[in-house]
Amino acid sequence: MQVTRRQFFKVCAAGVSSSSLVALGFSPTAALAEVRNFKLARATETRSTCPYCSVSCGLLIYSMGDKAKNAHSEIIHIEGDPDHPVNRGTLCPKGAGLLDFVHSESRISWDEAFTGIAKLMKEDRDTNFVARNQEGTTVNRWLSTGFLAASASSDETGYLTHKVVRSLGMLAFDNQARV
Ligand code: SF4
């Protein structure tokens, strides 16, 4: 391999400085770990649940920003919750990629999602709702839209979701945990 004079001096300088630092007690591994700890020490830690599948692994979500008015809060790191009985700190590749999911360019806001879904549901229900069957019996069915509930929801959320969906007349209703 050809090494230029400039490359040779660069390699020698790097070798001398790194061996000197190690001699002084600076282990690169320890130094890198300290940087990571310091970064997370100033972050807000929030417990959550992975939204992808019915295993429902526990998460620790770290964000910067103190949530003061006009302050911009941003999620900077997500990892498995070591205290969670389901996953004990581990995450599968989907869960390990959650930070990209959170910061995806194609992600829309909650307001956009909520308004858009409500609009589509109303349009479909107004068009396809069946109040009475052919015999004239009241049935109040809405068969053209289905609902898939999230398995990471609490019992209380599940109860309320069931009440809302059934009160709209929707019959196609399932849970992610069964899929
Ligand atoms: S981390 Fe993987 S296994 Fe765990 S809930 Fe998320 S998708 Fe499911």
Helix-strand pattern = HHEEEHHHEEEHE
Strand order of the largest sheet: 1-2-3
What is the overall number of helices? 6
Strand content: 15-25%
- Helical fraction equals 40-55%
| Radius of gyration over all CA atoms, rounded | 27 Å
Q: What features would you describe in this structure?
A:
There is one protein chain. The protein is built from 6 helices and 7 strands; from the N terminus they run H-H-E-E-E-H-H-H-E-E-E-H-E. The chain is of the alpha+beta class. The chain has a 3-stranded antiparallel beta sheet with strand order 1-2-3. A two-stranded antiparallel sheet has the order 4-5. The chain binds iron/sulfur cluster. The site of iron/sulfur cluster has 11 residues, from helix 3. Iron/sulfur cluster binds next to helix 3.
Task: Please write out the topology.
Blueprint: H1 5-23, H2 28-41, E1 44-49, E2 58-64, E3 74-80, H3 93-96, H4 98-102, H5 110-128, E4 130-132, E5 138-141, E6 147-149, H6 155-167, E7 173-175
Parallel strand pairs: 6-7
Antiparallel strand pairs: 1-2, 2-3, 4-5
The chain binds iron/sulfur cluster.
